[in-house]
Amino acid sequence: MRYIIFILAMLMSTFAFADEVKVEINPPKPVMGEVFQAYFRVFTDSDEEPVINFSPAGIEVVGKSNQGVSTRTIYANGKLTVSRELTIVYDLVAGKSGMNSLRDITVQLGNKTLRHPSLNVNVLKEAEVLADVFVMADVPKKELYVGEGFVARYYLYSKVPVSNLDIKKYPKLDNFLKRFLQEPERTERVSVDGQLYMRTQIYAAKLFPEKVGEFKVDSLHLSATYPTSRPNDPFGAFGLSRDFKTRTMNSETIKVLVKPLPQPVPPHFTGLVGTHQFDLQVGQNKLIVNEPLEVKLTISGTGALENLEAPELIKHPGLEEFESNGDLKITDADQATKVFDYTFLAKENLQIPAKTVTLSYLDPNTGRYVPTQLNFPEIVVAGGVAGERKKDTTKPEAKNEPKADKSLPQRARELAGPLTFDHWQWKTWLPYINLSLGTIALLVVAFGLLKQRSFSGIYLKSDVPRELKSAPFKFNEFVKWMAPLIQATGKSPIMIIRESPLPEESKRYFIDLLSANDYKDYSARKSEMQFSYQSAHFKELGRYIESVKNGNTSQPT
Questions:
Q1: φ and ψ at residue 469, rounded to 5 degrees
Q2: Whole-angstrom distance, CA of residue 220 vs CA of residue 522
């Protein structure tokens, strides 16, 4: 009997230290479209690193992480044995509900191969019970007109305290014109399906669809660490559990239907959707020739003012439109203002009668175009030079004067001093002296400008605004500086940088800077973002901005 017990003990110790792999799915019943985890636990007494292979059926692998190694030392039968437990976690997403699986599961440990049976995963179409922590996107409307703006906000819902919040992937939102929002971070208590949650906004953007069709509002991916309660844990109800769980989650993708504009579209439609106010201010309306006429048009409302070009207010051959530019200011998610400054130059005497300028917007609630009447006063221009008189080509009649007799000497009528002319008199050189001095002055001015400016094919102004040369990075000033490119292309700053002819190093610098700005504004780890101003990249972008403003298509150097 004693020998039998000894043999059994030896066999149990042998099995205890045998290599083994275990696979667990968390949660056991994942939801279609949501991230869940597969935990691979490898038990071995060797020092080899495991190589895991499997074939997912109906499941997509979106991430992988190593949870670490735990060791255990056991002294048995006069022998010291060290066993290791390695945990590797795969992030998975199921694209369809029903029974999916992980097949052909093998773990390679040096020359040894461990096999695991196929694992079936029952994927639910909808969650049976709401999780303690989840992320969800909120869109106020899912059917809207092209150009109609809406705010997409992403919230974190939690029943327990959350720590180590990390944004893994921000939504791309490539099918929309995106307006960056810098809203304060706030937390509020809400009820979801009869359960109380703390809701915290972690990201928001104002979106404007630019094409007709069905588009997706992308999901946001993040990971969070939070305590899990056990049935017998007396502190679990107070969020003081000693067991913590790190979970990767994502919000659901939301589809929106974009409709075309109602027909017929009036000629005075500005392209703005939503309620807007228009204000017209005209400067001095009684002018003299070559005096500028200044007009200011202010438009404020909820529409995509980024794409709005200066509307035509007045057109006359005697008025030359010298300059018009727009300045955009964003107040909040639902309000922005754009101011257009027009400058006209009167070229001749004229009188333009008072008129009414009509501008309209689309009311998305009624589907009707709402016109606004703006009064443009009478314009009077005077002070021009009258037309020159025609030259009289008729010769004056010759007076009947007695012809002088050349044979007789003529007597001088008046006494006059002798006339002398010196060919080297100094006054004759005065125009040449003035011309030489003027040329020298122009050369001095040009040399000074050349020291401060550079030429790239043609003269381009590439000054960088003073506000962008110092930390912290001021995103509003950067967007204001890029306004000509945004107006010309109608695209977001990151898309403009990607499609620009800038050097690849400059593109990476600005894309990282803008992405870091999103991370800085909406991530909990704000202290890790540092802005480093690099003048070479900013000057390259400055040249490109000026080339677009001047209508120059040449690439910056």
A1: -90, 0
A2: 12
Q: Is the pLDDT of residue 459 over 70?
A: no
Query: Is residue 332 exposed (0-12), middle (13-18) or buried (19+ Cβ within 10 Å)?
Result: exposed
Torsions phi, psi for 330 (to 5 deg): -100, 120
Give the CA angle between residues 303, 304, 308 to the nearest 5°.
Answer: 115
Q: In what order do the strands lie in the sheet with 213-217?
A: 143-145, 254-259, 213-217
Distance between the two ends of the chain, CA-based, in angstroms? Answer: 92
Distance separating alpha carbons of residues 458 and 454, to the nearest angstrom: 9
121-167 pLDDT, tens digit each: 989 887 766 788 999 999 988 899 999 999 999 999 998 999 888 88
Asked, as a colleague might, if the bond just before 472 is cis with ω within 30 of 0, I would say: yes
Q: How confident is the model at residue 527 (pLDDT cuts 50, 70, 90)?
A: very low
Are the CB atoms for 170 and 225 separated by under 8 Å? no
Q: What is the pTM of this model?
A: 0.48
pLDDT greater at residue 68 or residue 155: 155
**Nearest-angstrom CA–CA distance, 335 and 300:** 7
**C-alpha closest to that of 139 among 155, 126, 125:** 155
Is pLDDT above 90 for 56? Answer: yes
Q: Is 440 helix (H, G, I), strand (E, B) or coil?
A: helix
By the 8 A CB rule, do 163 and 225 touch? yes
In the chain, the percentage of residues whose pLDDT exceeds 70 is 77
Q: How many Å apart are CA 18 and CA 44, to the nearest integer?
A: 7
Q: Are 248 and 223 in contact (CB under 8 A)?
A: yes
CA–CA separation, 456 and 461 (whole Å): 10
pLDDT of residue 393: 44
Tell me if the bond preceding 396 is cis, omega within 30° of 0: no
Say if residues 224 and 162 touch (Cβ distance below 8 Å).
yes
Cα–Cα distance measured from residue 138 to residue 155, given in angstroms and rounded to the nearest whole number: 8
Residue 394: its H or E element: none
Residue where the block lists tokens 């972008």: 541
pLDDT given for residue 207 in this prediction = 92
Q: Is residue 326 scored above 60 in pLDDT?
A: yes
pLDDT at 4: 52
User: How far apart (Å, rounded) are the C-alpha atoms in residues 525 and 364?
Assistant: 39
Asked if 83 and 44 count as a contact pair (C-beta separation under 8 A), the reply is yes
Burial code of 288-303, b = ≥16 C-beta within 10 A, e = fewer?
ebeeebebebebbbbb
Instruction: Supply 532's token pair.
Output: 């480093």
**DSSP letter (8 states) at residue 418:** P
Tokens of 247: 């979970």
**What distance in Å separates the CA atoms of residue 346 and residue 326, rounded to the nearest whole number?**
22
Q: Which residue from 133, 116, 128, 119 is spatially nearest to 30, judged by alpha carbons? A: 128
User: What confidence tens digit (pLDDT) does each residue in 344-364 have?
Assistant: 888 888 888 998 999 999 999
Alpha carbon distance 153, 136 (integer Å): 9
Tens of pLDDT, residues 170-190? 898 888 998 878 777 788 998
